[in-house]
């Protein structure tokens, strides 16, 4: 009598894979945005460049500290803005490398609080100028003089509160995704595109809208005292960028989601930095004659005279 040998087959564990018809299992590889990939090196390079440009703007302002442009920057407001930009650029580095529990908890909150500080600083400066020029009694009240400090404190604080509640109640965590039939495992942050992330982004949009509204209201003021045009460009680019990338962030997984997040952070920071400070640095470095009290008085008087003439024609 002849005995037939029967071989039983078992599926490979989730962390292993095998080709069809093969009796062996091999460990799956891990897929995430590593530091050695070209796109990672590009993101890191643009991040370092952005931080270098921010520090360069800071140096230019410090070297021209006695000039009208620097004095109009608001002192504390300007320095808070610079800190916000530096932290916003550095948050891009958190999307590169193997996801960990700490990285997942810091990615969105670091950028959210940093950019909230940037937007709050711009909003505070605009409100401060509006209060100075539009005070009904000709002189700002004590509350109006301190309103910009309240905005600079409350703006980032509310974002911090949102982030703390998010991390405590529904924290994003590093997770492994096992695609069916694939030879790799996706490492990603689970929960970083949920309600908490939407609240962080929504609050930034609210601050950007308030900043844009105040900038539009300050358009009638002399150009030497307001940055309405630059703020408008920066906020519009911010809105367009986040509206375009948000669907990608919610639908993509793994590496592509990290790349999209890094790109939108860099675009937001670069556009705001350039719109707010590029022209002023150009004036200080290459047109110093326009950075004098005499020039500002003359240009302010000419602007006021043009407005009066226009009103007379109407």
UniProtKB/TrEMBL annotation:
Pfam family, one: 7tm_3
Domain G-protein coupled receptors family 3 profile: 39-300
GO MF terms, alphabetically ordered: G protein-coupled receptor activity
Keywords assigned: Glycoprotein, Membrane, Transmembrane, Transmembrane helix
Superkingdom assignment: Eukaryota
Membrane topology: Multi-pass membrane protein
Cellular compartments annotated: Membrane
Transmembrane segments: 39-62, 74-97, 109-127, 147-169, 200-218, 230-250, 262-283
PROSITE patterns the UniProt entry points to: G_PROTEIN_RECEP_F3_4
InterPro entries for the chain: GPCR_3, GPCR_3_C, GPCR_3_Ca_sens_rcpt-rel
GO CC field: plasma membrane
Classification via PANTHER family: CALCIUM-SENSING RECEPTOR-RELATED, G-PROTEIN COUPLED RECEPTORS FAMILY 3 PROFILE DOMAIN-CONTAINING PROTEIN
Protein name in the entry: G-protein coupled receptors family 3 profile domain-containing protein
Lineage: Eukaryota, Metazoa, Chordata, Craniata, Vertebrata
């Amino acid at each position: 009598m002849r005995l037939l040998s029967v071989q039983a087959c078992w599926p490979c564990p989730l962390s292993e894979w095998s080709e069809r018809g093969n009796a062996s299992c091999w460990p799956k590889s891990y897929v995430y945005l590593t530091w050695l990939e070209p796109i990672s090196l590009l993101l890191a390079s643009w991040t370092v460049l952005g931080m270098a440009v921010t520090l360069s703007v800071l140096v230019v302002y410090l070297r021209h500290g006695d000039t009208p442009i620097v004095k109009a920057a608001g002192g504390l407001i300007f320095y808070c803005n610079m800190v916000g930009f530096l932290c916003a650029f550095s948050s891009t580095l958190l999307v590169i490398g193997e996801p960990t529990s700490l990285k997942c908890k810091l990615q969105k909150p670091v950028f959210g609080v940093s950019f909230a500080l940037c937007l709050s600083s711009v909003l505070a400066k605009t409100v401060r100028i509006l209060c100075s020029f539009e005070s009904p009694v000709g002189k700002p009240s004590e509350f109006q003089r301190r309103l910009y400090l309240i905005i600079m404190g409350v703006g980032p604080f509310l974002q911090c509160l949102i982030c703390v509640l998010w991390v405590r109640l529904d924290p994003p965590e590093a997770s492994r995704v096992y695609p069916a039939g694939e030879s790799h495992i996706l490492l990603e942050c689970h929960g970083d595109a949920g309600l908490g992330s939407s609240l962080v982004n929504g609050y930034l949009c609210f601050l950007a809208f308030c900043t844009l509204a105040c900038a539009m209201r300050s358009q009638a003021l002399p150009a030497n005292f307001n940055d309405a045009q630059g703020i408008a460009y920066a906020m519009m680019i911010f809105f367009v960028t986040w509206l375009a990338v948000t669907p990608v962030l919610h639908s993509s997984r793994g590496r592509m989601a990290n790349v999209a997040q890094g790109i939108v952070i860099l675009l937001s920071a670069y556009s705001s930095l350039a719109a707010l400070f590029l022209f002023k640095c150009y004036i200080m470095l290459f047109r110093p004659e326009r950075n004098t009290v005499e020039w500002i008085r003359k240009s302010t008087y000419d602007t006021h005279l043009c407005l009066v003439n226009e009103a007379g024609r109407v």
